[in-house]
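During the reporting period the student researcher (J.K.) took over the structure-prediction task from the postdoctoral fellow and processed the backlog of single-chain submissions. One of the processed entries is reproduced below for the supervisory committee.
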Amino acid sequence: MLRWSFTLLLVGCFPTPEADGRAPAPLLEGEHAATVAALAPRRAGRPLVVVVGEPQGTEITDFVIPYGVLERSGVADVVSVSPQGGRVRLLPAMEVEVEASFSDLEDREIDYVLVGALHASSNPELLAWLRSRLARGSHIAGVCSGSLVLANAGLLDGRRATGHWADLDQLIREHPTMTWVRDRRYVVDGQVSTTTGVTASLPFALALVEAIGGTAKARAVAQDVGIERWDEAHDSDAFRPQGEVWAGVGNELWHAGKQLIALPLADGVDELAAAFIVDAYSRTLRSRVTGLTEGTVVTRSGLALISPSGERADVLLPPPRAELPALALDEALEDISTRYGRDTARLVALQLERAWGTQ
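J.K. obtained the following structure tokens:
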């Protein structure tokens, strides 16, 4: 999810599907294995995964986490792409230089296309390209509000799907033939996958690693990044605006001067940790984030991240952790809680659809 309107939340005009009181259905025996099997490559040979960015704005975690997980796993070739190539704005902060344009890949077979939340979710060129790639046999995955992009391309009609909790009302209203799955972190229906909010990018990427490289490989990558589980278990009903909304309203209205937080970046930085940190601090409505190092840095997995600088920072964070990068998010939430209050940390977790504190 790219942007919030706390005024709408305050007056009750930010709709979400009504909870029906049911507990989330437990995972069935063999369910995860069936999901992984449905994600398996459809052709022989080393798979090609493309992670799509859109120049006007692409959610940083949706883009960076799948790229970083799949690249470090070594199970596939991973390419960052945008319609015309070049530089892509990452939201809430930073930019990335993608490796290819759509035309660069025209003659290549693409096994998986991953699309996160995009500012221009109805870009006609992108939607046409997604439909053509589906027709050519690619598996298309919508990460977080990437579900809206897939829906706009007509790829969710008649399918089981999920999405960021704040998008679900729109998806259900505008695509009545879509069946919302309320209690799964990610859903696979044929050649199309969807996930819940921002942090689902990590477990879904590991499920894709498992589908391509096997369970042992996925387990090794999970241990390397610092998580134990990557299954589908989830409860979208648990993520509903409550008391933390007042913190958001107060931060938006009474803290016009946002603190500038600098994150030290250098070549080889772990992009997973950096993305989680940038995303978390940028969503407090009390702060904004820049990289301490001006210009381009090449991350551990080869992404070219660009951070404009020149402003004097109010807060200097420590460098992103080099090991167990998934832990960086909860560390950021704890620091945000200390700096700005627990409700602000819960507000950030709610946006990221991360179970943290009391939802």
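The committee noted the following: The radius of gyration is 19 Å.
J.K. will present the remaining backlog at the next meeting.
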